[in-house]
Amino acid sequence: MSSRFSIWVVLLLAGVGFAGVQAADVSQQQADAFSKKMAIVKQQGISGVRGQSAGPRRTPFTEAELNSWFAYRSSDVMPMGVSEPRVTLVGNGKVNAAATVDLEVIAKQRSSGRALDPWSYLGGRLPVTLTGVLRTENGMGRFDLEKAAVSGVPVPTSVLADIVSYYSKTADDPEGVRLNDNFRLPSQIKQIEMGAGQAVIIQ
User: Fold this and answer.
1) Is the sign of the CA dihedral 11, 13, 125, 23 positive or negative?
2) How far apart are CA 164 and CA 162, in angstroms?
3) Which of 60, 64, 96, 160, CA to CA, is 20 to 30 A from 195?
């Protein structure tokens, strides 16, 4: 699983109202299963799609497998300052998740010092949650953000946009990911069907 693709997973499969992942729901075996499936997705993206007669390639994964991968395998590819990501796949494209995020550096950069500027009150390592809908079709995706909160307190979507932009910056993409913008799916993925507790990657 490439670091770039894993970052997309972290940033796009996220939302508010997370009920909590119990220890029994995550395991090393499920983390290994998710890693193997993502390796298959990546390899299929390199080797190209099958002929039309063979039909699309479908790779299913579960919410528990994804959260197990976060718990056991994501430390090497997670952006520094982001930890404990957890995801709930609600269904019909809607996703819920939470993560602990270091907001100190962003707050120093973004704060205007004005009393009504939310960044004037944010800093340190805090739980960040959001809710939204992931829409994918014909190799393109879009994440429509609905809500965002820091330590349970609702914040403007601009605050979350700053967080996502900061932690998704790369040498090739210095501005990072912009929320609510269309993006191309990696590895020749055509669509991701998001069900309750599970999803299917279609190539």
Assistant:
1) negative
2) 6
3) 160
